[in-house]
Design a protein that fits this description.
The longest helix is centred in the middle third of the chain and has 9 residues. This protein is mainly β and about 200 residues long. The protein has two helices and ten strands, in the order ββββββαββββα.
């Protein structure tokens, strides 16, 4: 049984309607129809230790490592520029996070632009609970570190009734934090993990 209502606390989370914001290097990802996050999966399946003289497994072994995660951006195409140009200046964007039409023309150019960035790329998801009955929860975040663009689906099919064009960008990341914290990463941090400071996030209130 649910407890007493206290503003947004104890209420089901509404993901759309402006209550979730994704940023690319602290700038909002604009004109997104949908963003899908696939959590990292284990590097190996759980293995049962099952001696031949036992009716059931006597132990289950799980890995302590995970594969990369994936974020899929489905973005509306706007006139005069490619969808990836809105993500960053090195992809053809300007200071207003709009495309200039001068960014990379295909996936090879995108790979090169991302590889030449001076700092690791980070995507942040902000959850902004609504104010209910005069009470409001503090927004909270998930951070996805060391992001790279791994694929772009840039094709299209046009008919007389086509009213919108959606392009898809796949992004992979090495690890995530929640509110800037990941005890596993903090306990095993090394130069190999890379990433940027967990404290450098934009405020969305």
């Amino acid at each position: 049984m649910a407890g007493p209502l206290n503003g947004a606390q104890n209420r089901a989370r509404v993901a759309g309607s402006g209550f979730t914001v994704f940023t690319w290097e602290n700038k909002p990802i604009l004109f997104a129809q949908q963003i899908e996050h696939m959590s990292p999966t284990p590097v190996a399946a759980t293995v049962p230790i099952h001696p031949m003289d036992e009716p059931y497994p006597v132990e289950l072994i799980t890995p302590q490592a995970a594969n990369m995660g994936q974020i899929t951006l489905e973005l509306y195409e706007l006139y005069g520029a490619q969808v990836w140009e809105r993500l960053a200046s090195y992809l053809g964007g300007d200071s207003k996070i709009t495309g200039t039409g001068k960014g990379p023309v295909d996936i090879v150019g995108i790979f090169r632009a991302v590889a030449n960035t001076p700092n690791p790329i980070r995507i942040v998801k902000y959850v902004r609970p609504p104010a209910i009955r005069g009470k409001k929860m503090t927004p909270y975040t998930e951070e996805y570190h060391n992001c790279v663009i791994s694929n772009v689906i840039d094709g299209e099919r046009i008919s007389v009734g086509t009213m919108e064009i959606i392009k898809q960008i796949s992004v992979n990341y090495t690890y995530m934090t929640r509110g800037g914290v990941n005890p596993v990463v903090d306990g095993t941090r090394s130069a190999n993990l890379g990433g940027v400071s967990n404290s450098t996030t934009t405020s969305f209130t």
